[in-house]
Amino acid sequence: MLRSMYSGISGMKNFQTKLDVIGNNIANVNTFGFKKGRVTFKDMVSQQISGATAAANGIGGTNPKQVSLGSQLNTIDTIHTQGSLQTTSRPLDLGISGDGFFVLTKGDDTIYTRSGNFYLDNEGNVVNGDGYYLQGTEGNINIPLESQSFSIGADGSIAVVGADPAEGGLIQISKFPNPDGLQKVGQNNFVETVNSGAPNEDNITPGVGGNGTIVSGALEMSNVDLSEEFTEMIVAQRGFQSNTRIITTSDEILQELVNLKR
Q1: Do residues 44 and 83 make contact, with C-beta atoms less than 8 angstroms apart?
Q2: Contact status, residue 71 vs residue 41, Cβ threshold 8 Å
């Protein structure tokens, strides 16, 4: 069978994966705190026809002769660039300007997010839409139910009016040595992996040591650029079509070989 047919199949599979990632990006264009994905490819192993030779005996050297066998998936990256901040004027809508993640707990599990739409539960705890507790430097962030109003500063401090004490805690920000190594677990959340490294527990204050600051009354939008995604979609579509043409052409050549028997 022709090598080109299998190369075309590998290309079709890869461009299908690229289209899957692009489709997910576009589906989440309005998802708060969403970080887009990107697909990269690499070539497969090359079949050696002949190796390189050095100059000797009055004859110059020759280059190796190789036939590549298609492409394969290289990486699926998560792009952690800053999304634009959309003003909502709601005090529990929090955006991060800069690096870092909000820290949430679900039972004994710790998860991280850039999505800052938070709410109060019946005990005054600050939670996200799934009921996960927002963490501060001293544990769960809690705003006393008897408070008349509250405000959140850029350093994560919470000032409470009409309650004792007049402080509601300090929101924690976690920063990772390699945020690209975090694993997506759905619901706008990430978890730590062996390649992300552990967050710096000695530097959890917003605006300190390279951590981003907190913007109250605003939400970070998705960092998906629709014009870029549509351009990549066209490239992936044409790449997929080109690989199908390779398979069609290879099939026609095989048909001509079979017809030699007639």
Answers
A1: no
A2: yes
